[in-house]
Input
Amino acid sequence: MAADWLGSLVSINCGETLGMYQGEVSAVDQASQTISLRQPFHNGIKCPVPEVTFSAMDIKELKILEIPGSSAGGQPDSSSSGHSGRSARAAGVPSSAPMAVPRKGELRTQEGFNSPQQCSKSYGERHLDASQAKGFRRRHNSWSSSSRGQSQATPKKNGMKNGGPLKNKDDECFGDGMEDSLDTDFDFEGNLALFDKAAVFSQIETSERRNGARSRGTPNERTPSRYRHDENILEAEPIVYRQITVPQHGGKEYCTDSGLVVPSIPYELHKRLLSVAERHGLSLERRLEMAGVCASQMTLTLLGGPNRLTPKNVHQRPTVALLCGPHVQGAQGISCGRHLANHEVHVILFLPNFVKMLESITNELTLFGKTDGKQVSSVKDLPDTPVDLVINCLDCHENAFLRDQQWYRAAVDWANQNRAPVLSIDPPMSAQEQAVDAKWSLSLGLPLPLAEGAGRLYLCDIGIPRQVFHEVGINYHSPFGCKFVIPLHST
Output
């Protein structure tokens, strides 16, 4: 008789502790008073095991949801409507599990139930426990579809089906033939409970502390593990890069835009550096050419660069007044003027007449004379109106007696009275030697400790090799990068 219950779909209530189970009866053992369900669902969620066995002591209530071979109408057959017949004990179902069977809209126990075929599918669906998940209803529908006969009537569309209310349209369309993976609802609370955030974060911090990922400073310092949203975790002080060290410090330090420290050197060390470079092949003529190119590039940028110096803008050529003295600094200025004149800049070169001049100045004047630049020897020939830029090359590092001459004082007065900005090329160190206040100053190789009147300082690369720096005791790494002229900032 126990075989009559095999394949039935039942719902078992095991109390508040164990909960509700639903599934298909796979075995009923009368001797041990147990019943087994295959493909069980626990509280609407599919169980991970394929079969569950219940003892009669654990069952509080047992309801039949579907019996194989039941009639299509969903009501008990007329032949099985009587109360006499097999009981739950005779069928092998534990006596402590009351059965729910339909009779005219009311529940009856299994005691006095004649046959398991009396249990209606439609009644079991109508009286399904409200706590069951929707996914189980769909799974139950897919099970029940296999037990229907081919001659089963199509559900009516008048709002009633098998004597009960019409199911949801989603159940009608998608209730049968769904895959098992879509039937089980995702358990968010259960999966979140598996993730112990406190333990995981503690493990991460322990691993980072062991590997030294967050260690900064001395080992005795304790690094905070967390920061507020308004706290700055970066270093408060900028990183200082010292890649240039000198044997004799000039008293000032500068830094580039990238933070590289460039120390100043005294004039004696600078003079020795140029002398060693000239001995190794960097002659004065080559040095003058490099200084002229770098100074002209900086001047072209100050004049407006490509915004002003274009081939189509010949009617607004910028004007530059170049003030030079009879020394090496003056020769550097003449070289700069030649490159500016080649780039369509109107250059006016001031150089006083001397009976005897340096060979370097004579050579530079010869080349400058081949350009469209204008050379004057008197301050009176300089323009009365402001020019675009004044390049000052009047001062030198050694010949201080030139500052007492009349032409020098006249040129200084003209430069100070003109409203044009001033660029000084290779100016001297002391403030007394800088008679003209400059807006920009350009140093060669390494800077000298210039006074405040020198304006903003720039540094140009004149091609001194690294081993030449090392020969005079300077540990040198080029601060120029991809440029030949870079700005320097006072520290």
Remarks:
- The longest strand covers residues 20-29.
